[in-house]
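Our consortium's second objective concerns turning raw sequence data into structural hypotheses that experimental partners can test. To show how far this objective has progressed, the report includes one record in full. It was chosen at random from the queue rather than selected for favorable results. The single chain below, 237 residues long, was entered without modification.
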Amino acid sequence: MKNNTNLSPNFSNTIRSKKQIKFVIIHYTGMQSQIVSIKRLTDPLSKVSCHYLIDKKGKIIQLVSEKNIAWHAGKSKWFDQNNLNLNSIGIELENKGHDHGYENFPKLQMNSLIGLCKKLKKEYKIRTEHFLGHSDIAPLRKIDPGEKFPWKKLSKFKLGKWYKERSLNINNLSKKNVEYLFFKNLHKLGYRYFEIEKRSKNDKFIIKAFQRRYLPKKVSGVIDKKTLKISIFLTSD
């Protein structure tokens, strides 16, 4: 069941055309309850919102019209896109998040999300690889929807990119070559906030964002063989 009323005043007045909407960004609320989450997402002083919130039982609540720009992504980059609020639809999933007791995402919630995303994909002709997490587009400051989010499951419905494993020998690569190849691959995928040839203390946040999505059982911030291989699989399909 979907409530189509605009509940949040936090959106830009600009009306978007269908072709301007190119991404779906998935978040978790990171708050103690649905009530607290909706209160914040509809509070004019918070200056944050989303298009949809899906509660744990799978109920979909629409807070901002799809044609309007909701304030969910914040400072963000993906490929040549800056400020992904402008051309995305933001979906918040009720979940306490890492600060309040991070939970698994219930089946009913995921079923509703998949149904909604399939509808949005068809309506706006959104590309499979344009279903992203908040941590993909803002890896230096965001970690949601986190390592418990089932990206592999969504990929089976062509809602987000995934990889196919195959035999690959990378034993002869030096540490410098491993780093260069990994960040080169991430740049090809769309990740930003780093330089391909120059290392930074912020790189660990980029690595962790990638691992939360594609290697969720080992979010170390270190480029091990498995992490590098996944980056190669994703860019050579």
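The partners drew two points from this record. The chain has two domains: 2-155, 175-235. The mean pLDDT is 95. Both points have been shared with the crystallography group to help prioritize constructs.
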